[in-house]
Protein: MannoseP isomerase/GMP-like beta-helix domain-containing protein
Organism: Chitinophaga oryzae
Amino acid sequence: MDWSDVGSYEALADALSRHYQYRNHQAVFIESDPHKNIVIGKDKLVALVGVENMVVVNTASALLIMKRGRGQDIRQLHQWVRDNRPELL
């Protein structure tokens, strides 16, 4: 495997799909292409229906759903959380 900068969820999705046969048994894709979506998390079932190019990050304290390619907007979200919900950080 070659080195790759996985500093964003989009880069992580590309690395996983390129280098591994990634299977997330906690995700169900109905009329969605699982190769164009990424689901990170394991605590609960995540179902994607009819959507593409989505990133879903599911943790115990938060759920992030975003379009691939919008990873730079995470900075704005982080600032909002810092200002409004610092207990989540």
In short: The radius of gyration is 14 Å.
